[in-house]
Amino acid sequence: MIRFEGVSKRYLTRTALDAVDLELHPYQVIGVVGENGSGKSTMLKLITGLARPTSGQVHVDGEPVTRRIASKVAYLSELETFYPFHTVEETVQFHASQFPDFDRARAREIMAFMGLDPDAKVKNLSKGNRGRVKLMVTLARNAPYILMDEPLSGLDPMVRDSIIKGLISFVDLEKQTVVITTHEVNEIEPLLDTVVAIRQGHLLKVEDVDTLRGETGLSLAEWMTQTYAGNES
Amino acid sequence: MKPNFQHSSPIYLQLSDRIQRQILRGELKPGEKLPSVREMAMFSQVNPNTVQRTYNELERMGIVETRRGQGTFITEDAARLNALRDDLRQRQIATFVEAMEEMGFHSQEILTGLETYLNKHKGSDQD
């Protein structure tokens, strides 16, 4: 379980998250949604130990988060974090050397599934294929928590489709929990068990997605448009 | 092909409706094995937990049965499947009649309208 207790995060004068209390139960797919700058990425970074709360505490499976939580948490960054001179295969080797839970056989399977050429240099790949490589090295880990920051952002519909399929095929929800931030709410919605909606650093709602649909008669995107517009004033 | 879902109702129920319709159309036969949760998740592009929820719901309704270690199968209970056929027909008629009444049509108008439509429909089928 991931737990936030009174967590605030400020960057100099800007408050990214304000007094967030939150419990996320394991073995499901959790979507973190909100506008740009609402605190989605900050929330993921706090779970990976890449950022530390200004106040409050974040726990993963009862353990306070430090940078060493990386052994339990696989993180797909919004940024490109590869060595451009590596080939796809060398990228796999490198990740395997960094994470004991990295499963090379699974990496090969995902590589084949995504149609990636192991000998291609990362710097020569299209943006879509770099997105696929990112997903591959993230999902090849047998980590109990998989965090993905905007995995679909800026990619064309075919690539988004293959990433969504890859996610369904290679995540084991009997053992793993996925937390995903996204703008592509319509595409991601059928994958989600739970949605966490945040707005300007405040937690708006944590809800089972099918319950939300059943109670409001709205899709997640429609609900967001309504809620976020309604809160303006 | 990716089946789309409507916005307004829970996905697990929509998936359950879809399977029920496939059974009525005979695309899924009594005793037939349903795809595994993961296969169904891949095909429908939904979360495996959602598929599991759908299968649980269908099992609760007595339409499918899970055999340990083997998978999920359509029931061979003919009475249950007939009841399902009646249920779905009743449900669809209720939706239709409700919509017609909302527009102010009376029973007799609905009946004659339906009759005319069906006759015309039959005629065009034979062309």
Shape of chain B: elongated
Determine the CATH topology of the largest domain in chain B.
Arc Repressor Mutant, subunit A
Query: What's the story with the biggest beta sheet of chain A?
Result: 6 strands, mixed
Number of helices of chain A: 8
Please estimate the helix content of chain B: 55-70%
Structural class of chain B: mainly alpha
Over the alpha carbons, how many angstroms does the gyration radius of chain A reach?
Answer: 18 Å
Instruction: Please name the fourth-level CATH homologous superfamily of the largest domain in chain B.
Output: Winged helix-like DNA-binding domain superfamily/Winged helix DNA-binding domain
Biggest interface goes to: A-B, 22 and 20 residues
Name given to the CATH architecture of chain A: 3-Layer(aba) Sandwich
Describe this protein's structure:
Chain B: This is DNA-binding transcriptional regulator YhcF, GntR family. Chain B: Keywords: DNA-binding, Transcription, Transcription regulation. Chain B: It holds the Pfam family GntR. The complex is a heterodimer of chains A (233) and B (127). With 233 residues, chain A is α/β, with parallel strands linked by helices. Chain A has one domain: P-loop containing nucleotide triphosphate hydrolases (Rossmann fold, 3-Layer(aba) Sandwich). Helices cover 34% and strands 26% of the residues of chain A. Chain A has eight helices and ten strands. Chain A has a six-stranded mixed sheet with strand order 6-7-8-3-9-10, sandwiched between helices. In chain A, strands 2-1-4-5 form a four-stranded antiparallel sheet, with helices on one face. In chain A, helix 3 packs antiparallel against helix 4 and helix 4 runs parallel beside helix 5. Chain A is globular and about 50 Å long. The N and C termini of chain A lie far apart (36 Å). The model of chain A has no long low-confidence stretch (mean pLDDT 92). With 127 residues, chain B is mostly helical. Chain B has two domains: 66 residues, Winged helix-like DNA-binding domain superfamily/Winged helix DNA-binding domain (Arc Repressor Mutant, subunit A, Orthogonal Bundle); 48 residues. Helix content of chain B is 63%, strand content 6%. In chain B, strands 1-2 form a two-stranded antiparallel ribbon. In chain B, a hairpin with a 3-residue loop joins strand 1 and strand 2. The radius of gyration of chain B is 18 Å and the shape is elongated. The two termini of chain B are 31 Å apart. The relative contact order of chain B is 0.11.
